[in-house]
Design brief:
The complex is a heterodimer of chains A (245) and B (237). Chain A has 245 residues and is an alpha/beta fold. Chain A has helices spanning 42-49, 72-81, 97-107, 113-126, 142-154, 172-187, 199-205, 223-228, 233-242; strands spanning 4-13, 16-26, 31-35, 55-62, 65-67, 82-85, 160-164, 192-195, 208-213, 216-221. Chain B has 237 residues and is mostly helical. Chain B has a single domain (2-225), classed as MetI-like fold, CATH 1.10.3720.10. Classes of the chains: A alpha/beta (245), B mainly alpha (237). Chain A: One of its GO terms (cellular component) is plasma membrane.
Chain lengths: 245, 237
Amino acid sequence: MPHLAVNDVRAKYGSLEVLKGITFSIEKGEIAALVGPSGSGKSTVLRALMGLTPITGGAVDIAGETMNYSSAKEVRAARDRMAVVFQQYNLFQNMTVMQNLTLAPLKIKKWDKSEVMSEARRLLGLVGLSDKAEAYSDQLSGGQQQRVALARALALKPQILLLDEVTSALDPELVNEVLDAIRKLADEGMTMVIVSHEMAFVREVADKVVFMDAGQIIEAGTPAELFDTPKTDRARDFFSKILRH
Amino acid sequence: MERILDQIPRFFSGPNLLLLLESAGLTLAMTLMGCLIGFGLAFVLVYLRQTPGLWAMPLRLICILYVEVFRRIPFIVVVYLVLFFIQTVTPNASLFTIAVIAICLYAVAYTADIIRGGLESVPRAQVEAAEAMNLSRLQTNLRIVLPQAWPVIVPPAIAFAVSFIKDTALVSQVGVFELTFRGKELNNQGYSGILVFGTIALCYFLMSFPLSMLGQYLEKRLATPRGQRRTRKIWFT
């Protein structure tokens, strides 16, 4: 049974259908990468999974439990099992790094305080920011903020981690520090769905690549299959354009 | 001019000063109580106004209507309305209570829009990050949005309170013994109008100026990014 199965998920903005039935699945410990041109709906898939964009059809299975986001309770259940890292980090500006990491574990999950604190410190070590626990986000670089955001998501102990273009807003020299942190997570066996334009990185870490265009999945397969021998013209066209440089 | 100089020693006598001090205190107490309670209630109003869902539509409409109506009525009319309404319900309510209620009702409408603007100035992405962690709407507002909205809310809210110290002069119309009312009394006792109202003007200035200063201090402090503030925790975060 797949760890995450997205079944015919649909979403609309007004009358515009932005997700026209998205279906894919991954096993525990696998990484799926959603790729495609801007406006193809990649980020919307992640937003739909987190209940930030309401879905108009379909369902999502997480570790065998089916969720259709039809009630506030169902949305909460889905959010309880996943965590998301946004392109713009979205750290809480009024809180220190440590407060960002511990807010939801303490107030929402209501976990034991000493365990939450020591886990938060471990995660800051993992992303290489042990010395920034008391800093505010305006004292951190973009790359540091994004690594904090990654640690904040991990502090929720998600079954699935969603990464939404996490390096797109960063200066080029800061991209690698964030990618390195994600590589570590991949090595630890974290199940992830990532939206990324870093094709070399996708080829390296992803088990499955899902190519989307105009709210639909055009083609899915292993990185080698999609990048080297795409079956559809649309995918061949897209990859030939972005892999050249 | 001679007459004014003659009157000065008599005017600044103990009983008169006590009277002025008392009425200045009353003016300040009325304004602060009305504005503080009004400010608190305005938060509740804004929170209710932001209730999502179709079922909450009447609630949202009532909140919008309240703000729009009260912002379009002159304050003195609100005072008279409260006066006659309260006196119908409880004939022996004090004029001070009536004045505070009127100020409160008016302050709710004005500060609600200030608060709403402040909350809306916080990027939507902050709210989504909180939602994705399952924070409730109340938790998100109290822990994430409001602390970041203070820099936008505090300066105009204090400016409102400062200007309202002056506007409370209008409640002298219904006979509350506040500063302007006492001024009229002293003037009627034969003291020079220039002397009396000059002193009264000074009293108003002395009351509102420190509050303006406080507002400017807070505005500067709140505009400083958190990492650069000298003491990290500040009293209302």
